[in-house]
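Schema walkthrough. Field components (list of strings):
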Amino acid sequence: MSEYSPQDPMDDRDRALLADLGRVVRQVDPVPDGLADRALFAITLDGLESELVELVRVETPELALRGEETVTARTVTFTADPCTVMITMSPGEGGVRVDGWIAPAMRCEITLFRPDAEIHAESDDEGCFVLEDVPAGPASLVLRRTDGTGPTVSTPVIEL
Amino acid sequence: MTLSDRAAHALVAYRDGDPAALEAFVRETTPLLWHVVRGQGVERDAADDVVQGVWVAFVRNVESIREPEAALSWLLVSARRAAWLAVRRHRGEAARTTELPDDADERHELPSAGPGPEAQTLATERDRVLWHLFGRLPERCQQILRFVAAADRPDYRAIAEVTGMKVTAVGVTRGRCLAKLRALLDDDERWEWS
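Field assembly_structure (string):
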């Protein structure tokens, strides 16, 4: 079927094709804005805190399908061995409002790390917490049980 | 200087207490890691976390990577492994959350690396044809060509690390994949070589 031999060295047409393909791939599947900043921030956070259990994001397909549409609230779930944390981000008056829920319910000190600041909160007996007026940008949540037991857990850096 | 040289340079500079070189290298190489991870079929949100995790692991292991020349290889192999784990985890979740048989059709399948509705973002017919036919290539071919296209002339060793192939097979496989894509394009009346 093909008139081309795989043994041939790359010719100009191959190189042009790869250039076109690279352009198309970057257009269809662009690198998310701020990814390098989030990676650098994650490196910084990792240097600050040791012995963290990293939570892993759980895909929420029904939300993912909405794609680039304007979604007013965004819910992300993270999970690892000690607990699951679900957070909903919605636009507030002075920034982003983060509503969180920890399961199983536990009292935790919560620190939201941003590149230039930390915001603190505590969860109640139901495992719920709220962070208000958080500026947009990269952020990571670190959770510590108030009674000092169990490991400290952290989320990947997400974009608020 | 090749990307591999810049990786070695950044590693050495970082060990010597100069984080600026690392930052520049992270900025330069993050897009490449993104395409490696996405080429393995990881969803965009998860790929974001995977790429971060690879960089964190890189810095944690900065002292244990003995040969600075191996820094880029280390990153590429880690990215491929982490992507593979993410795909496996996603499959596990998908299996656990499978709905009743009636809903099976709508069950979220693993995203293929190939074209989807996102192709609508392509402005020209020519680009859409290219993306569509690219998606008809075998998965391995898509991974190789995507990486070769995203990286600036990667060497055979880098391609081998991203795809898990033997280095000796890279040249022929790349040639075969390019030949397949060219044949598909030749057979498509909408396509014109520029």
